[in-house]
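sry for the spam today, last one i promise. struct tokens for design, 289 residues
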């Protein structure tokens, strides 16, 4: 029989190599893991998620700031085009049977100045960019320019200035190496819709000046525009602006028709030629609406 102390001594002596080996192995593992962690800690850090997001948002902020500044400049150019195009329209309204050539020559020179000074600035600002993003910023000025150009063209030739001819006049303003800024169909039609209001005022003025044939020509021209647009507008996307202008256009056409009709039906009751107040021809007291 073995004695208990001897047994314990034998067990301790027999297990001691295993325990020592286990402790040694564990120690080595700790050393290896510590060395690995130290090497990871010493390794230079590359880009992190936080710095990447910060750089990305800095780029986005820079792009939006630049776009907003460009939009402000485009809005300013659009206002200048609108103001000076209106001056051209006012110049055309000074026309009479005695000064037609003089007035139109001055109006056409002013219109050319609008193109060279203000449209050219807008073209340079938008060249090389996705100008559809800024269409809302410059659309009012372009519409007013279309209205002035088509108004001059009608008074000169009695015909409509089409979009291709209008854009052909803008090509010299653009760099041939870059996509040119061209007036789009939607802005052209919106400007054309505004034209009937000016034609209505012109027709009333021509009736008061005794130019009845010219007034009837304006009436036919305005009806043709309205009739053609009634076919086009339902096919347009996002045509809410156009629908509003179509209602105003109809009122202008009706006023021209009523004025011309009154001349023929009731002309014998009044001394119409040379009258400075043709408002009675319309059956309404105020012709400025």
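last one done:
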């Amino acid at each position: 029989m073995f004695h208990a102390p001897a047994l314990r001594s034998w067990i301790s002596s027999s297990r001691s190599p295993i325990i020592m080996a286990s402790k040694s192995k564990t120690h080595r593992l700790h050393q290896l893991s510590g060395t690995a962690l130290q090497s990871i800690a010493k390794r230079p850090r590359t880009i992190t998620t936080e710095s990447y997001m910060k750089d990305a948002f800095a780029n986005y902020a820079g792009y939006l700031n630049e776009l907003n500044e460009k939009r402000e400049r485009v809005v300013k150019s659009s206002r200048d085009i609108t103001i000076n195009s209106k001056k051209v329209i006012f110049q055309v309204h000074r026309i009479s049977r005695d000064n037609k050539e003089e007035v139109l020559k001055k109006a056409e020179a002013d219109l050319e100045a609008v193109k060279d000074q203000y449209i050219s600035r807008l073209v340079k600002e938008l060249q090389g960019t996705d100008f559809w993003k800024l269409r809302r910023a410059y659309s009012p000025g372009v519409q007013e320019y279309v209205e002035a150009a088509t108004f001059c063209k009608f008074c000169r030739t009695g015909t409509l200035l089409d979009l291709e001819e209008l854009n052909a006049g803008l090509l010299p303003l653009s760099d041939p190496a870059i996509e040119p800024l061209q007036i789009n169909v939607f802005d052209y039609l919106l400007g054309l819709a505004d034209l009937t209001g000016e034609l209505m005022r012109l027709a009333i003025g021509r009736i008061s000046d005794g130019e009845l044939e010219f007034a009837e020509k304006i009436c036919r021209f305005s009806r043709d525009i309205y009739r053609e647009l009634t076919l086009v507008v339902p096919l347009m996307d996002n045509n809410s602006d156009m629908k509003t202008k179509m209602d105003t256009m109809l009122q202008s056409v009706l006023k021209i028709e009523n004025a011309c009709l009154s001349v023929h039906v009731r002309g014998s009751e009044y001394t119409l030629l040379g009258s400075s107040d043709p408002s009675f021809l319309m059956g309404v007291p105020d012709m400025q609406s």
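Confidence is low (pLDDT under 50) at residues 18-23, 278-289. ok im logging off now
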